[in-house]
Amino acid sequence: MKLNKKILIVSVLILTNLLADNIEIECDTNNTNSCASIGIEYQTGTNGKVDYDKARLLYKKSCENKDNLGCSMLGHLYVKGLGVKIDNKKAIDYYVLSCSYGNPYMCNHLGERYEKGVGVRYDYDKALNYYTLACDDNYAKGCFRLASLKLQDKKHTVDTDKVITLLSKSKELFGKECDRGIQEGCNYFRDLKDY
Question: Per residue in 71-100, pLDDT tens?
Fold first, then answer.
């Protein structure tokens, strides 16, 4: 019985190393999502050790090949100062790339930063633009934040029909999140019950 356990453990270790090698080979052949995945392993230490420099290099390679995950993770390193000097400008630049490569979460995140003036100057128009991009890509929070921003606008006349449409769309999208078991979606869906 002890021999079988040893064989099993050795087999698992060999398979784990083979899988890791395959992912690294995919990264080397420009499968950029693999590069970002390996970067996350180095950033979090799930591969056995934390190495922010390797994570940064892998994210950079991924981002240079227009992978939105690599760009957003690279921005995260700069916001948190993980292996690099904290640099909000660089972080924002990478978040912008991530958004432009199709990451609606990051578009929404940029909208929040510009709306609240976090790491950037407050800019209503940029917040509006990024929330619109997120909402157009069916990101529920983007639609919700866009409606909220429009309601708070004191310079322009509020288009209530547009706001109601945005709130209805965000409610529908939050409902889908809730159906997938995402509690935050359920919470927003409940709060938007009247739309």
Answer: 999 999 999 999 999 999 999 999 999 999
- The number of beta carbons lying within 10 Å of the beta carbon of residue 132 is 17
CA 183 centroid distance within chain: 18
Quote the pTM value: 0.79
Write b or e for each residue in 82-118: b if 16 or more Cβ atoms lie within 10 A of its Cβ, otherwise e: ebbeebeebbbebbbbbbebebbbbbbbbbbbbbeee
Whole-number Å distance between alpha carbons of 21 and 147: 47
Cα separations in angstroms, 110 against 22, 87, 179 = 34, 15, 27
3-state helix, strand, coil split of the chain in percent (to 5) is 75, 0, 25
Q: What is the DSSP string of 112-163?
A: HHHHHTSSS---HHHHHHHHHHHHHTT-HHHHHHHHHHHHH-SSS---HHHH
CB 52 within 8 A of CB 83: yes
For residue range 61-71, what is the model confidence (pLDDT) as tens digits? 999 999 999 99
Q: Which of 32, 10, 30, 34 is nearest to 22 (CA)?
A: 34
